[in-house]
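Section: Multi-chain targets

For targets with more than one molecule, the full set of components is provided together so that the structure can be written out for the assembly as a whole rather than chain by chain. Components appear in the order listed by the source. The example entry contains two components.
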Amino acid sequence: MREFDLINRFFRRPSPYASGVDVGIGDDGAVLSASPGMDTIVVTDTSVEGVHFRSDQSPHAIGYRALAVNLSDIAAMGALPRWATLNLTLPHADPEWLSAFADGFFELADQWAVTLVGGDTTRGPLTMTVTVGGEVARGASLLRSGARVGDMILVSGPLGGAAAALECSNQANLERVLQYPTPRLMLGQSLLGVATSAIDISDGFLADLQHILDQSGNLGANIDASNLPLFDAAVQSLGREKALDLALRGGDDYELCFTVPPEKLPLMKQLKSDVDSSPICVGKVVSKGGCRVHGIGDRYERSGQGYQHEW
Amino acid sequence: MREFDLINRFFRRPSPYASGVDVGIGDDGAVLSASPGMDTIVVTDTSVEGVHFRSDQSPHAIGYRALAVNLSDIAAMGALPRWATLNLTLPHADPEWLSAFADGFFELADQWAVTLVGGDTTRGPLTMTVTVGGEVARGASLLRSGARVGDMILVSGPLGGAAAALECSNQANLERVLQYPTPRLMLGQSLLGVATSAIDISDGFLADLQHILDQSGNLGANIDASNLPLFDAAVQSLGREKALDLALRGGDDYELCFTVPPEKLPLMKQLKSDVDSSPICVGKVVSKGGCRVHGIGDRYERSGQGYQHEW
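Its structure, encoded as tokens over all components, is:
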């Protein structure tokens, strides 16, 4: 199959949402017009076979996930997504695989009115890079750097599910968390003007929280382990201690971790019913550097490193 | 080396140009503000080891080229580049390689005031995706679809050099064309309001011209082979016939091919001295479909396929 045939067959779809997209797939570049009064948010993530997904995984899930991890970053900025580019490197062009991959990608794209505006297809080891552009009111983005001493630390849902899925197979619920992460875009919208900082948990809760603490001026955190939301299936299969360990240090959760001043905490309990998660308070920002996890001894102090690529 | 160390050491550089970049590397996404009255142009290209570059090639050239091929797309839209993201997949982290790669990338980025605003580093087979955002006055982009019957067809410089470099080693001039393509950004600016269509020649002259003809309403072209600019080194090493063949069908030229109405042709001869190329008229758009190359027999008629990935 030739490159242009492949693009036309699988990736050029009519897009009814394309406001602001003047030229999409098919020219040297996409032509986009920003909405007045809005900032553009650009995020990008690469997924590599054998690192981010397994070769035997469903192509539908691989396509869905490649977009989902980017939308999770958009959510963490408090933005809504508008357009995406897809760079797909393929060892061979299997129409069945490509069709399912595209279906997975567009299932999520359609859900959030994201227009695929361009990309690149190349021959090589199976790898994909998705770049997403979103919008948020000028100056309103949720950054990592705004946490203040006294803020409460919240997470948008149970942690450690994706890491637990890798430890115990045959757990359909956990497998779904790993393969089909839900970007918390509605929650991200609700956090505008409420949260002082936000990040999406991709490298592990402690590691990502550490980014907030570092970038907010070397602050610290006290975490109450007994409040950390876990997956029942993980606790049942692996025991509470292991499930808690994975919730603290596992990666690929794609929940949001964010900070809220105590006086705004009641707003979190009044989230609209269409918001896609129920945030839970797990700790507090303090001035003393380091991250202390209470309720399981001191062994996590200052050891908050999650998943980083290491060479 | 850990991921964050690698980013901080090689890719986080102070950027004096960053107007419109409110948040760059280091958050979940970059925060960008579009200039009033401008469209945003987004282009993206992936480079794979063994396909787009050789493993023994200089990392400086690989870094330069990964950005250059994207800036060439920006030039073909008549835009100027503003920001870039870099997704780098690496089998191992060799500081010397990374340092030279980053130097090559930033050499070109600095030349065009492009700010690196984000990206991703992952472990895996050597692959890189660069995405670039540029700006052009609203509605002024050069598209592939505007050519009209009677327009003259021009190219921005000699063709076939990169393809010739692959055929004959030890030709430093040709090797430089292959490894360090020059994006024709100044020329792209001069074409605004002058050219009716434009494309950058990455897949081969005839193949890329065919995109213009197809997208402008299934038009055709008469090309005069004797006007096609060739590299002296290619003619000397490979003979005129082979050099011409590579100019017509070789890829990776990264010159612009564009169409200009005859009455505006004199403007092409008055290009400012700071423009980076001297366009040459090589043919004419006609209503009869297909591309006829005169001066070398009829064998190129309708065979205008250049480089496409094929699986």
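Chain A has a mean pLDDT of 91.
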